Amino acid sequence: MEGKMLEMFEVGPCEDDYQLGFLIGQRFCNRIRTRLAGDLILQNQLLPFAQTPQAQALIKALSETNQKKFPRYWAELLGTAEGSGVPVLDIILVNFRKEILPFISKTATNSNADTADDCSDILIVSDSMAIAAHNEDANVALVGHTYLIKGKLSNGLSFIAYTYAGELPSCAFGFNSQGLAFTLNSVPPTEAEIAPAGIGRNFVSRDLLEATSIADALARIRSAEVSVGHSYNLIDIQRRMILNVETASRSRVSVHEVGTTPFFHANMYLHLQVQQVHDENSISRQKRSAVLPQGSKTDFLSLLGDTEDTKYPIYMTGKN
Fold it and tell me: What Pfam families would the database entry show (predicted)?
């Protein structure tokens, strides 16, 4: 998604989590400000909706729920807003984008409405190789507005996270000093499957950066009463284990251990039984992956770079 080398910011250990967020916000203030100013979903949908009574109640409930569950990460979020000099509301809205957008009236959105994040993963664990390969394809407003955070915590744990400007690390992918890594795939539950004011996806993935093992990561996912669903690819480097974990509201979780059969995941549920939005983009990528060679690392990288389907390519290069 980037055309030049990503900047990495090493931060910590800090006095507290607010300072951690403040220093990140301060370092990337220009990038955060320009991302928010050019984010049409924020400007045209989320901010106008935030002025309505319905939205104010939803945002208040989301904020209280997530602050109670994750007070440290909430302080980090507030610090990011303060450090970057942008309104706290803007930072809250981009971090809860997926939790809020389903409740905006379809008549209030336009043809540029938020669509599924078009990330793709191919995973395999065999005697000869263990691979987790990921495409990070997201909204065009994020081009030039991402960075790497190398966070060092007071307990000795450190992590590296690919981060969207203004959001908690990481709603994309990351890994830590305990040998635990993850990538993420958005999934599209229907509105009836969404629990208003639950835990936000960005807070769950921020928590995963501090997991001490794959079992601990899975426990953290299970303990979160999420608002919308998500797909997590958990990678234990030391144990050579990869789990695909699909989640939905009301504590629904399905775990698939990746083995010798290559496992491709786009942006629809594959094994958790949930009512979901029909996403032609994701279905097309899933079908295309099934006919491509999947026997070597070169095959997997070629698969993620496939552009044969010009309308819904596995490798996105811009707005189609």
Answer: AAT (PF03417)
CA distances in angstroms from 255 to 181, 198, 201, 273, listed in the order given: 16, 21, 17, 12
Helix (H) / strand (E) element for 120: namely: strand 120-125
Rounded Cα gap, residues 208 and 276, in angstroms: 25
Residue 109 has pLDDT above 60, yes or no: no
Q: Name, in order, each residue with C-beta under 8 angstroms of 57's C-beta and a sequence gap of 6 or more.
A: none
- Using DSSP's 3-state secondary structure scheme, residue 152 falls into strand
pLDDT digits 0-9 by tens, 118-143: 799 999 999 999 999 999 987 777 88
Task: Show Cβ contacts of residue 91 under 8 Å, excluding neighbours closer than 6 positions.
Answer: 77, 78, 80, 81, 84, 166
Average pLDDT in the chain: 94
Angstrom distance (rounded) from CA 244 to CA 185: 10
User: Of 109, 165, 175, which Cα lies nearest the Cα of 138?
Assistant: 165
Which residue, chain included where needed, has tokens 């097309």? 284
Using DSSP's 3-state secondary structure scheme, residue 208 falls into helix
**Overall pTM > 0.85:** yes
Q: What is the pLDDT of residue 37?
A: 97
- 2-19 mean pLDDT: 90
